[in-house]
Structure formats: C-alpha cells, structure tokens
Backbone:
C-alpha cells in the first residue's frame, strides 16, 4: 500500500481572490472621483496664483513706465520692451516668455485705463463654463 501524504502548501482560493478584487474595485469607484476632483481643483488654484503673480509684475511695470501695458502689448510687455514703454526696467517675469495657463492655453489680458483684466478660460479654453471649464480671473 502506498502511503500518500497530503501537501501542506497553503494558498488563496479563487473565491478569496475574487472577493479581494471586488473590494478593491468598490474602493476605486468611491475614491477615484474624489482624487480626480482634487487634481482639477489644483489646476484652477495654480491659474489663480499665476494671475496674482502677473498682477504683481504689472504693478512693477506701471511703477517704471507710468501705465499698464495696452491690450495690444499684452502680457508680452512683461518680458520684452514695447517700443512705446519709456522707463521699462524689465523683464518683470523670471522666464523669457509668458507662461501658458495650466491647460496649455494663453492667458487673456485686457487693459482699459487704470484697470486690468487677466483671465484663463479653464479646461475647455472657451469663455464661461462651470467646474473645471470655469473661467479663472483677477
């Protein structure tokens, strides 16, 4: 007679693995949207911070030149001297060019007299919208 010894190798059964996968799937379904919402909010906050930095640079520009850049000169006047800007003492930004918004779109700049408007059109790149597509402005 042959004496068969049972193997004492332990492991997971298919049912146990399926239960663990189901639990992980439910956690991902609950947590995933929250993480993605935080990521989107971070881009909007980043755009607001960049806009504040532009405002500070524009204030320095105004102190040197006596006025804000015109709408035609735009934010590029912060890195390259416009021909009409006497007293320009720039560049007023650390980089050699004006950065794009967090969605890789250009910032919008409008000047009228002593007021300036700097904005980003959000994720969709169009005016208006809600959520991640909402405009961010000063």
Residues:
């Amino acid at each position: 007679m042959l004496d068969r010894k049972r193997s004492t190798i332990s492991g997971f059964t298919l049912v146990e693995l399926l239960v663990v996968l189901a639990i992980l799937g439910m956690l991902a379904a609950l947590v995933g949207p929250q993480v993605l919402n935080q990521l989107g909010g971070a881009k909007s906050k980043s755009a607001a911070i960049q806009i504040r930095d532009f405002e500070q640079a524009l204030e320095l520009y105004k102190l040197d030149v006596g006025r804000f850049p015109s709408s035609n000169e735009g934010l590029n006047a912060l890195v390259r001297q416009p021909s009409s800007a006497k007293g320009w003492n720039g560049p007023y930004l650390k980089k050699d060019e004006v950065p794009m918004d967090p969605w890789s779109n250009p910032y919008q700049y409008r000047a009228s007299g002593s007021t300036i408007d700097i904005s980003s059109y959000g994720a969709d790149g169009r005016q208006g919208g809600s959520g991640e597509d909402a405009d961010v402005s000063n």
